[in-house]
Write a structure and sequence with these properties.
Blueprint: E1 5-10, E2 19-24, E3 29-36, E4 42-44, E5 62-68, E6 71-84, E7 94-103, E8 116-119, E9 127-130, H1 135-138, E10 149-152, H2 156-162, E11 169-174, E12 193-198, E13 208-216, E14 224-225, E15 227-232, E16 235-238, E17 252-254, E18 261-263, H3 265-278, H4 283-290, E19 297-298, E20 310-315, E21 321-326, H5 328-331, E22 332-334, E23 341-344, E24 346-348, E25 357-359, E26 367-372, E27 381-387
Parallel strand pairs: 3-8, 4-7, 17-25, 18-24
Antiparallel strand pairs: 1-12, 2-3, 2-6, 4-8, 5-6, 5-9, 6-7, 9-10, 11-12, 11-26, 13-27, 14-17, 15-16, 15-20, 18-25, 19-23, 20-21, 22-23, 26-27
Length: about 400
C-alpha cells in the first residue's frame, strides 16, 4: 500500500466547498472536483471533458443520476484513467479503468466554478442504471429511466483502495467554511486553502495539535453519527435519536459538501432560544439574517467575544461521549461576499431533512477531520483534532 497523499485544496472555486484537481483520460485533462462526503459518485461536467476525444475511454450502458447545487443531472458512466494531482511535482498515481460519470444535461452552475464531484461516501449511495444501449450515445432522459435496471457502481475511493493505491482513509485540514473575500484574489488567501490527505490522516501529526477524538459512524450510507446534545453557553439541549424504521438512519450526518451547520428546524428553534437566554442582545442579528432581510451583515456589528461557543455532544467510537466545540468565528463567517460583511452558517432546514441535521464545513473549520473506513462493518470512525497553528498548506 502506498503512503498517504497530501493534496492541496481550495474553496475559492465554489465559495462553499473544497475542491482538488484530478487528471482525466489519455490527455490527463485537469479537472477540479468538489470533495463531498455527502455523495459517492465521481462525476465530471460533460462540457469540460468529452469522452470521444479520449483514446483510452470506453463508454458503457450504465447511467447515473444525481443532484447538486442548482439541480438534478444525468450522466453516462465511462471507463478511463484518473490521476491524482498532488501539486508537489511528484509522480501522479493513476488508476486505469475508473468508473467516471459524465454529465450531459446538467444545469449551468451545477458545480459552481468547479467541474465535478469526488463523492467520498459509501457504496450504498452510488446507484446507477443499466440501460438498453450506450448511455453517452443515447443520452437517456428521466422519462426513459424505467427502461433500465438498477446497478451498483463502485465509488472511486473504494476503487483506489482495492487497487492498493491508497488505504481506505482520508482527512481534511481546513480553516473556514465559506470563502474569505478579503483579498482581491481569494485564491491567494491562505485561509481559503487546505490539505486533503488521501489514504491516511491520523499519522499526519504535524497538521494537528492534541488528541484525535474518535466518533463512531452508526450507519454506512452517509457518514451518520449520533448527536446527543448541543450546548450553548451553559445551556444543554438534548437531541432525540432517530426513530427506528423512520426516514433517516441517524439524527445527524457529517457532510463536507455543505458550508452550513443545518439543524433540524425544531432543534434550530431551541438553539435560537438558548442564544436568547444567554444574551438577548445577540439573537436579533441572527433573526435579521434568517428572516431574509439581508444576505450579509456589517461585521462590525458582530462582537465575537460576546458570542458563546457551540458544543456538539456526540457518541464516541468506543461508547461514551465526545464534545466538539465550534468557535463563534466558525459559525459566523467574516468577509463573505466582500471584505467587511459577515454571515452566519448556523441555519435551520425548514423540515427538509426529515428530523436529521446536516453538519457541514463549520464542523471542519480549524480542525483536522479524519475519516477511517477500515473499522467494523465498513463504517469506521471520524476523528477530530484542532488544526496546528503552524501547519503549512501542503
Amino acid at each position: 500500500m502506498a503512503e498517504a497523499l497530501r493534496i492541496p485544496i481550495t474553496n475559492a472555486l465554489t465559495g462553499g466547498q473544497f475542491a482538488m484537481v484530478i487528471a482525466v483520460g489519455s490527455q490527463q485533462q485537469r479537472v477540479n472536483v468538489i470533495l463531498d462526503t455527502g455523495s459517492s459518485m465521481l462525476v465530471v461536467d460533460g462540457a469540460i471533458y468529452d469522452p470521444s476525444r479520449d483514446s483510452g475511454c470506453a463508454t458503457s450502458q450504465f447511467l447515473a443520476t444525481g443532484e447538486f447545487g442548482s439541480g438534478a443531472f444525468h450522466a453516462a458512466i465511462v471507463r478511463t484513467s484518473v490521476g491524482l494531482v498532488t501539486g508537489l511535482g511528484a509522480a501522479e498515481p493513476t488508476l486505469a479503468g475508473t468508473d467516471l460519470a459524465i454529465t450531459y444535461d446538467s444545469p449551468p452552475g451545477t458545480f459552481d466554478q468547479a467541474d465535478g464531484i469526488f463523492g467520498l461516501a459509501y457504496a450504498a449511495l452510488n446507484i446507477g442504471y443499466r440501460m438498453p444501449g450506450d448511455t453517452w450515445q443515447n443520452k437517456y432522459t428521466a422519462d426513459q429511466l424505467p427502461l433500465g435496471q438498477s446497478a451498483d457502481v463502485v465509488p472511486f475511493a473504494e476503487q483506489l483502495s482495492a487497487a492498493r493505491i491508497v488505504a481506505d482513509k482520508f482527512a481534511f485540514a481546513v480553516r473556514r467554511s465559506l470563502v474569505r473575500d478579503a483579498l482581491e484574489d481569494p485564491a491567494t488567501d491562505p485561509l481559503n486553502q487546505g490539505v486533503f490527505v488521501l489514504g491516511g490522516g491520523a499519522e499526519c501529526t504535524d497538521l494537528y495539535a492534541g488528541p484525535l477524538a474518535s466518533v463512531g459512524v452508526v450507519h454506512e450510507r452517509y457518514y451518520s453519527i449520533a448527536l446527543i446534545a448541543i450546548e450553548v453557553g451553559d445551556r444543554s439541549i438534548a437531541v432525540p435519536p432517530s426513530a427506528p424504521g423512520g426516514p433517516v438512519a441517524s439524527n445527524a450526518i457529517v457532510d463536507s459538501g455543505s458550508p452550513y451547520l443545518m439543524l433540524d428546524q425544531t432543534l434550530f428553534g431551541r438553539v435560537l432560544d438558548a442564544f436568547r437566554v444567554f444574551d438577548p442582545t445577540l439573537e436579533p442579528a441572527l433573526e435579521a439574517y434568517f428572516q431574509g432581510n439581508s444576505q450579509t451583515i456589517d461585521q462590525t456589528q458582530i462582537d465575537l467575544t460576546r458570542w458563546p461557543p457551540l458544543r456538539l455532544i456526540v457518541q464516541g467510537s468506543e461508547g461514551g461521549q465526545v464534545a466538539i466545540e465550534i468557535a463563534p468565528k466558525n459559525y459566523w463567517q467574516f468577509d463573505v461576499g466582500r471584505a467587511g460583511n459577515a454571515a452566519p452558517v448556523l441555519i435551520g432546514d425548514n423540515g427538509s431533512l426529515k428530523g436529521q441535521s446536516n453538519l457541514g464545513l463549520p464542523l471542519f473549520a480549524d480542525r483536522v477531520v479524519v475519516f477511517d473506513r477500515t473499522g467494523p462493518a465498513g463504517r469506521g470512525t471520524i476523528g477530530f483534532a484542532d488544526r496546528a497553528e503552524s501547519a503549512a498548506v501542503v
